[in-house]
Design brief:
- The protein contains 3 helices and 3 strands; from the N terminus they run H-E-E-E-H-H.
- It is an alpha+beta fold and about 90 residues long.
- Strands 1-2-3 form a 3-stranded antiparallel beta sheet, with helices on one face.
- Strand 2 and strand 3 form a beta hairpin.
- The termini are far apart.
């Protein structure tokens, strides 16, 4: 896919957590033009953020708001992703 080679939006140290071994990204969370983590769903189809770094209170609040909007938009539909990243597979949910 080649996307993981684009360092302009991703800290290279995060690559092993956000991409599978073939270079496919899982669900990603973006802030300020960069990938800062991923999103996953719990058994009730609620979207949760799993951030790779401290993005600050304002960014976290905005991302949490978008997670809530995505939860509402999906309306109970659970998304399955064959390209689940290591961070998505290891996410600990409430």
């Amino acid at each position: 896919m080649g996307w993981k080679e684009r360092a302009f939006y991703l800290d290279p140290a995060d690559t092993p957590y956000l991409f599978d071994s073939n270079g496919n990204a899982g669900n990603t969370a973006w802030w300020d033009g960069r990938i800062v983590g991923c999103w996953v769903q719990d058994d009730d189809a609620r979207v949760h953020l799993v951030l790779r770094e401290d993005v600050g209170a304002r960014a976290r609040a905005a991302l949490e708001h978008e997670a809530e909007r995505l939860t509402g938009w999906l309306d109970g539909v659970r998304i399955t992703n064959v390209y689940a990243s290591p961070q998505m597979r290891g996410a600990v949910l409430p």
